[in-house]
Structures are given as structure tokens and as C-alpha cells.
Amino acid sequence: MQRTVPVISSQQKFNAILVAALCVITAGSYVTLSGLLTSQLIEELGWSSLNITFGITVNMILYGATAPFAIHLMEKYGIKKIVILSLVTLCAGALVCTINSKIIFNLAWGILVGLGCGVLTMSFGALFARSWFEKTGLPTGILTASSVTGQFVLLPMWAKLANEFGWRAPLIGCIVLTLITLLVICLLLNERHSAVRTVTAYNIKPNSTFADVFINLKGFVKNKKFWVIALAFGMCGATTNGLMWSSFTPAATLEGISVADASYLLLIVGVLNIPGTIGAGWLSDRVNKQALLAVIFFLRGASLIWLPFILSQPVGWELIAFAVVFGVFDVATVPPVINLCNHIFGDQGPSAFSWINVAHQVGAGLVAFLGGLIAFMTGSYFVLWFIAGGICFIAALIVLSPYHGEN
Q1: What pLDDT, in 10s, does the model give residues 286-319?
Q2: Where are the transmembrane segments (predicted)?
């Protein structure tokens, strides 16, 4: 749905999306750091995974639960103020985490880093795109790809820093990246370079209250389309984050593939996310979003059904081809889902998406638990890939429902 936005130049829009992309990359660089920090703290300081579980769990909860309230704050006080506050919070959290204390680490990583990352999820991308652009598909595709860049592409660099300089090095690296982002915000996110005051004045809702967050949610849950989209997006989370982040590497190692090779395959997935997501964003402005989502889910499901038959082989063209195909369709659902939310809920689209994204995280958590349970009971992840593929096929049918989207 095309909507009216303030008249600003193409250069100002470019500068704004550049700043937003850097913000999302920065937050993404923290998101996948938990696993690396866990292994490094166990190896270097003798901590156990149990010593860090509380902080990581709180971090994940806040990562999903913060977004609806962050959207409210951005709409009330302006995007720039809340983004700067979140980045300062991330800096403070990472800095405090460098103190050698289990209690301090858990509190800082769980609360400060969790809140900071939770503000800059794709819900932020949805609001940002709707504030600066008439058509939101391509901008949300770019910002989703930026999130993946921060999560996957930077992780090998953080791992190398940790191996060479110790567990504090990736934290310091994230702090430096955050400071650079704050500097870029000061240089570009202003009226001259990105029309931020004009856009803020046009979109701000100064009289809104926290009660509006729940009033809006009450309205969303009465809409059948909200539940259908949430169910489909929960299935999306179940077959992406909940599957590949937690189960792929241990499944690969059980089949004799080294951790390094498994990480290499995940890196391919992360890199291919970028063109796949940008392409899906571009298409979501031009074709039926329901049909696009159905195709994405079907092809993702087909790749997952194929995986158990090739995972026992040495890394060759088959596994690389899987990584390429899965990578293209991994998070390609995000731009069309955001576009659907904007189409259905109008100005409340970003707020609706922030709650729908909670379903994504719930789906991810359930399948992460299911994968561990299947591996514990059978000694293999073989069955998991068929279950995940089936979930994708069901999601492909759900998104074609008349209660879902444009119809």
C-alpha cells in the first residue's frame, strides 16, 4: 500500500537508510555473540554453561518482548532519540560485561544488551521504512539483510578476535562498532542530510501512552488476519532461527562434518540471505505478497527435506547448493510480512509486526527445544529436518488463506 510521506530528496532517503542499516548491523553483531562468549568463558575462565544461562535467557526474552514498547517510544519521542539511547545502552552493557564477574555478566548481558538489541529488531526496520518511504518493500529488504549481516557475517571476525586476544576482544569490537554508528548518526541523521526533523514531526504521536500499546494489541487480536500471519511467522521462526542456529552444527558434527566446515556452510547461508531478502523486498512491492510467501515457504521446505539425505556426505557441491538455496529463502519472508502488516493495519503496521515477531521467537524457541529432545531420544537429528520441511509446507498453505493478507 502506497502512502503519503513528507517530501524529501532521494539523497536524504539514501542517507537515512544507510544510518538505519548500520544501526541494525550493530545490534545484530551482539545477537549471535552469546554462543561465542559462552564457549570462550568456559574455556578461558572455567565457567560452566549453567553460569551464563540466566543472562542469555533474559537477553532472548527481552530481545523479543522489547519491540512493541520500543515502537511506542519511537512514535512518541522520535526515532533518533530512542536509537541513540539503545546504542548507548548496548555500549554500557558490553563494557560492563568485560568485568570478570558471573553476576555482573548475567545482569549486563541479560538486561542491558537484551534491551538494546530489542529496540533495534526488524520492528524498528518496519517503522523506519514506513516513516521515510512510500513503498516499504525494498527498504525493509535492505534492513533485514543488514540484520543478517550483523548476525552472521561479523561473527567469524569476532571469533578470530576472541581466539587471538581473549574473550573480551569481541565485546570491545562490538563497542567500537557501536561508537562508529553513534558518530555516523551525529553526522547524517539530521535535518540537512536526512530530513529527520521533518519526518519526525510528520509521524510523531506525542500524546500516546503506554496504555496504547495494549489497546492496540487488543485491537490486533480481534482481527483474524493478525492470528493467521502470526501463525505463519511463528512457523517461519521455527524453520529458521530455531532450526539452523541451534541444530545444524550439532547435527553436522554427528555426521562427521567438522565445526569449521559447518560454520562455513552457515556463513554461506548468511551471505545469501542478503540478495534473497533484498530481492523479496523488491518483489513484495510488485507481486501478490501471499503468493510470494507461499513460494518462499515451499522452496525452503523442499531444501530442508533434501538436507538429511546429503548431510552424511563430505562437504561438497550438494551441501554448498543447500546452503545457497536455504540462504536465499532463509529470512526472505520478513519484507512481505511487514508489507502485509502495513497493508492490513495501516499506520499501526509496525506495531502489529512487533507483536507478530514475538510469535516468530516463540516458534524458534519451540523447535530449538524439539531438536534437542529428538537428538536426546534418537541420537540423531534426522527426523527433525522432515518435521521442519512439513511445517514449511503447511505455512505455504496457510499464507494462501483468504484470512491472510491482501484478499
Answers
A1: 889 899 999 999 999 999 999 999 988 878 889 9
A2: 16-37, 49-70, 82-101, 107-129, 165-189, 226-244, 264-284, 291-311, 317-340, 352-376, 382-403
- CA–CA separation, 60 vs 117, rounded Å? 9
- Helices 317-329 and 259-284 sit at what angle, rounded to 10 degrees? 40
Give yes or no for residue 87 having a pLDDT over 50. Answer: yes
Asked whether residue 221 falls in the same domain as residue 135, the answer is: no
186 and 318 fall within a common domain? no
260 shares a domain with 392: yes
Please state the pTM of the whole predicted model.
Answer: 0.80
Predicted confidence (pLDDT) per residue in 248-285, tens digit: 877 887 888 876 787 788 888 888 988 999 999 899 88
165-174 pLDDT, tens digit per residue, is 988 999 999 9
End of a domain among 208, 233, 263? 208
How would you class 323 by CB atoms within 10 Å of its CB: exposed for 0-12, middle for 13-18, buried for 19 or more? buried
The answer to whether 146 and 25 are in contact (CB under 8 A) is yes
* 2 lies in some domain: no
Among 176, 208, 240, identify where a domain stops: 208
Measured between alpha carbons, how far is 176 from 88 in angstroms, rounded to an integer? 12
